[in-house]
Request: fold
Amino acid sequence: MSMTLERRPDEKQTALIEERIGERPVFSAYEVGRATIIRETLQAQTGYSFTLPREDQSPVEIFELYQEFPELDFLPVRDGSGWITGYLTRQTFLASLSESQFSRDLLFRKEARLNNLINRDIVCLNAHTNLSEASEILMRRPDRMRFDPFVVTLDRHFFGISTVDRVIRGINYFLTREMEAVRDAQVRILEAPCIPPEIEHELRHHAHVQPFQGPGGDFAKVYEIDDRFAVATLFDVCGKGVKAAAMVSVLGTLLHTMWKELQKHPSFSLRTLENELYRLNNELVKLSSLEMYATGVVCLIDKQNYVLSVFDYGHGMIWLRRNNRVHALRNPGSDPSMPFIGITENLRLNPFSFRIKPGDLLLTCSDGIVEQANHNREMYGPVRVMEAFQIASADSLSEMNRQILDDWTEFRGGARIRDDLSLLLLQID
Reply:
């Protein structure tokens, strides 16, 4: 494989190019230029000016260079027209001299030239080449040279040297920044308060969402409608990472829009929420990938009449703590084959309702809590959630959630976390 430069520009153009290179142009996070050891840095590291040798130079001159500059290793070579046509490395060059005395004598002959020694499988990439494109090109090189450095150019001029390692690090840096941006957007959606200014009696709650790594696929939030009604939501999107986080962002945006619409209804009721969830699901199907969906629950809390109504979109787990006893709330008519939210249009769920009392505590969580395994491959399970919920005692809901998570962590015993996790705790006043 050989990727060469265009012909060297004239002296005036060269001066302008060198001036631009000296200004150290800014590259985006996904361009090779950002992952390059520039010429000035190479000179500082090796002591060599990095005037590129020509093919017609004697091997003796290169031997003297390597002797004079012990830190010098990768050395591009150009032809008489200024094209970079190959490269040398310290190891391969010195190895060719040490094969035998005969080989050494051949290389040091007066008429010997570099053109017979250089590796012509040189890769020269423009500094504005995308890192992903660069990695594909570099990985297509033969095994024997796959991880050799490569040349980076700017405006057809030698800019510096880079390596596969630096490209991979650049890709990782770029992906990390991308993940952070998605995560920041997700945090803003989760933390944005959804409380009308005229509300006097808020539903006390605490949500804990912990992504597996970077942005995640769990969502937990409470939406206050008025002094009578509040809507509590917890969803677990299938998969992990950016793809799941993207659906969380869509879902969170749709829920926020739904909250705005619910406040406009002059006579809000359970039927109103049912209709809005029907429309939300249809929009989610249109805006998300075909294979993406979410499980979870949407709970309507009637704070005046003390009624809890639950829309179960699969894997819905809700526990009620009353008088220090914990009960699992289940839908008596639940259908295990009921589609999850976001996977099929025209999905209309029938909610199931329970009477609640002042002082009740309600807990729901995602699969990341229940299905976490320890080193013995035992799952934490719903029974252990109930036990931890029952014994948790604290002055604040956040402290109660922390105690449940402490029990979960102790059970895990250092076993790897394998999923996003979320907890939503509600207190009825």
